[in-house]
Design goal:
Blueprint lengths: L9 H17 L5 H7 L6 H13 L3 E2 L8 E2 L1 H11 L7 H12 L5 H16 L2 E5 L8 E10 L2 E8 L4 E7 L6 H15 L4 H11 L8 H9 L1 H4 L9 E4 L1 H4 L8 H12 L1 H10 L6 E5 L11 E9 L4 E9 L4 H19 L1
Helix pairs in contact: 1-3, 1-4, 2-3, 5-6, 5-14, 6-14
């Protein structure tokens, strides 16, 4: 939950920005003397120390122990993201890497999203996440039936958006190869071009009046609609990359913190919840530490953006410690979402 942010003087804003930028870069708390020297402020260390104490009292800074320098709190990061952060241009190298990775694979949903996961993880050194879009509006491309045994049939369903699903059906009686071909033709003639949602609602009516087609198989297909056209499995709907990179972040150097991030990655329901729960004013949403809806992610930040396909939209993002380069990653996510949307449209 976001907390009320206090108003700051220009001096307080300058010093808060310096502390946040230093900590993002080094992962080390910073003292007043270093801020005075490193950031070229025309202020004495004593003055900066007093301002830092005020910022800590407001909840914007904290320190790990009494003799240490200051580091940003979740509220401090939030103030930085909302009021102090400058968004720059993504480097030409980053742009070229993103375009090369995404445009070098076939323009199919799963290939593009797998490439997107890899490029996000590589560019951020954090967890790169892609959630596949809701497929109720996805259009059926084709159904293929293949007889594997006397009473066993393989059904392969492919959608225009890219995902393909295969499932085994047990038949009540043996079917000839010619009967299977007849049913395949009938299914494609009556269902191809409809959305998944339309098929689930209309399949019984659309498969009527097929007197010359084997009725037992048509009936089995209609009765199995919920199983055949269910694309909502969450574990299949999320791609996660960057496990090897993220555990090298200093925040995950202890056995407990490493175990926490690994357990989080294994729970795909939470990953989807974190990405879908992030909200923002612009095309990129940022959720910081304690703002996350799940307590297990209270030390993490989530940056996400929407991408679009021809018929739906999904989310892509990165997850990592609250100490992350919000400026660069915001630009990175916005640019990647544009490239993915263009590739899938």
């Amino acid at each position: 939950m976001k907390q009320p942010i206090p108003k700051l003087t220009e001096r307080e804003r300058l010093i808060l920005r310096a502390v946040v930028q230093h900590f993002i870069l080094t992962a080390n708390p910073v003292g007043s003397r270093h801020v005075a020297k490193r950031f070229g402020m025309n202020l004495s260390p004593a003055t900066i120390r007093n301002v830092m104490a005020d910022l800590e009292e407001m909840g914007l800074l904290s320190h790990p122990h009494t003799s240490a320098g200051r580091m940003p709190s979740d509220m401090g990061y939030r103030f930085y993201v909302d009021d102090l952060m400058d968004l720059g241009e993504l480097s030409s190298e980053d742009q070229e890497n993103i375009e090369r990775e995404i445009e070098s694979v076939p323009a199919e949903l799963e290939s593009v999203l797998d490439a997107t996961t890899r490029v996000l993880a590589s560019a951020s050194q954090l967890l790169g996440i892609v959630v596949i879009p809701e497929l109720q509006k996805a259009v059926l491309n084709r159904i293929e039936l293949a007889k594997l045994a006397e009473r066993r049939l393989l059904v392969v369903i492919s959608l225009e958006a890219g995902p393909m699903k295969s499932i085994m059906l047990e038949l009540e009686q043996e079917m000839t190869e010619s009967s299977v071909r007849e049913v395949t033709i009938a299914l494609n003639q009556r269902l191809a071009g409809l959305t998944v949602g339309q098929i689930r609602e209309q399949i019984a009516a659309r498969m009527q009046n097929l007197s010359e087609t084997p009725q037992s198989l048509i009936r089995l297909f209609v009765e199995s609609t919920d199983e055949l056209f269910n694309f909502s499995s969450k574990s299949e709907n999320v791609r996660i990359g960057g496990r090897a990179q993220v555990i090298h972040q200093p925040e995950f150097s202890t056995p407990g913190s490493m175990r926490g991030i690994i357990e989080l990655v294994e729970d795909k329901d939470i990953i989807i919840h974190l990405l879908q729960g992030s909200e923002g004013k612009g095309p990129v949403a940022i959720t910081i530490g304690s703002e996350n809806p799940d307590n297990r992610a209270k030390d993490l930040s989530v940056i996400s953006a929407d991408y679009k396909t021809t018929s739906s939209s999904g989310k892509l993002g990165v997850i990592g410690p609250t100490r992350m380069d919000y400026s660069r990653l915001t630009t990175l996510l916005e640019y990647t979402a544009r490239v993915v949307s263009k590739r899938l449209s």
